[in-house]
Specification:
Blueprint lengths: L3 H14 L2 H11 L9 E4 L10 E6 L6 H10 L3 E6 L4 H6 L10 E5 L2 E5 L3 H9 L6 E4 L18 E5 L5 E6 L1
Helix pairs in contact: 1-2
Length: 173
């Protein structure tokens, strides 16, 4: 069994010695290994604003990038509750994540769906503007997005989607 320290070393080594495509493949593989039974983790901090700002996340129990994204969310004032699951597809479908725009974890906050490594400031903006959109997504696992920081940073789009599956660029990072 690997420890998180070993996984981090493997990912760092890949970033130093491999092209961006290989680094992303290694990170994606870390999120798709077989999982343990469902667990719940409540993560909050002094910056947690209110129960209304609780982000509920569904993820694989072996998802290595999740921890850094949670820290990013906590630093931005959100409380995070995680549910480990071995089958994310039905959850993504139920929450309306558009096909072809998936990532490694799916979340909800104040009725919005958040797919993948969406920056906290854009989640806050979506909430504050009381957007009619269904949610935001950062498809795949772009290097440099929150939770995927490293030596390589790639530009990526944060997508907004509605309940009918219409997708548009919400922000560029």
């Amino acid at each position: 069994m690997r420890t998180s320290g070993q996984d981090g070393e493997r990912i760092n080594m890949s970033l130093r010695t491999s092209a961006l495509v290989i680094a992303v493949a290694v990170a994606a593989a870390a999120c798709s290994r077989p999982a343990n039974p469902e667990t719940r983790v409540a993560l909050g901090g002094a910056n947690a604003a209110s129960a209304a700002d609780t982000v509920v996340v569904y993820k694989s129990p072996t998802c290595g990038c999740f921890t850094a994204w949670v820290e990013h969310m906590r630093e931005s004032g959100f409380t995070v509750v995680a549910h480990d699951t071995t089958d994310l597809e039905p959850i993504k479908r139920q929450l309306g994540v558009p096909a072809g725009h998936v990532s490694c974890h799916t979340a909800t906050v104040r009725g919005y769906t958040i797919e993948g490594h969406v920056p906290a400031d854009l989640i806050r903006k979506l909430i504050d503007e009381k957007s009619p959109r269904a949610g935001l997504a950062v498809p795949g696992m772009p290097m440099g997005s929150p939770g995927m920081e490293g030596v390589v940073k790639q530009e990526y789009d944060v997508l907004a989607f509605d309940r009918n599956g219409k997708v548009e660029v919400y922000a560029k990072r």
